[in-house]
Design a protein that fits this description.
149 residues, elongated, 7% strand, two-stranded antiparallel sheet, single chain
Length: 149
């Protein structure tokens, strides 16, 4: 990590004679490839953001593959909006919030697929079994009693 808000080396002391200042500035610029400390800081911030975006993109791609593969094992699957980190109690953002209706005979296979996706891009969590609310629907415009399907 850089020392944010601190002067660059060679500039922390009171200003020396003008000739010494020029020599110090030239030596500092040559050591950093001609880049000022401010530009170097901005470049590092940009690289950090790009790295974070690349990591997010990789996690989203892995999540898509995971959802597709789990869907092959499950009887049915649904995607839900990712939960806000405040609701999940985690600091990370959620990239996939899926519900999967799994035949009890395939539970181990389902868990094995899920386990294969635990890596540096994804922190995978399996909960349940839950009641299959995600796989029901209500048609409020239906003329049938209660509109339930």
């Amino acid at each position: 990590m850089g020392r944010q808000g601190l002067p660059a080396p060679g500039h922390a002391a009171p200003s020396p004679a003008p000739a010494a200042t020029a020599a110090t500035t030239t030596a500092s610029a040559g050591a950093s490839g001609g880049e000022s400390p401010g530009l170097a800081y901005l470049r590092r911030k940009k690289e950090s953001l790009r790295d974070r975006e690349d990591l997010w993109r990789a996690a989203a791609e892995r999540a898509e593959l995971l959802h597709a593969e789990l869907g092959q094992v499950a009887v049915a699957s649904r995607r839900h909006r990712p939960q806000d980190p405040q609701l999940s109690g985690r600091s990370e953002s959620m990239v996939l919030n899926g519900a999967y209706l799994v035949d009890p005979a395939r539970e181990e296979e389902f868990a094995a697929v899920l386990g294969g996706y635990r890596d540096r891009f994804l922190d995978v969590e399996l909960t349940g079994p839950w009641a299959p609310y995600s796989f029901t629907s209500i048609d409020l415009g239906s003329s049938r009693a209660g509109g339930l399907r």
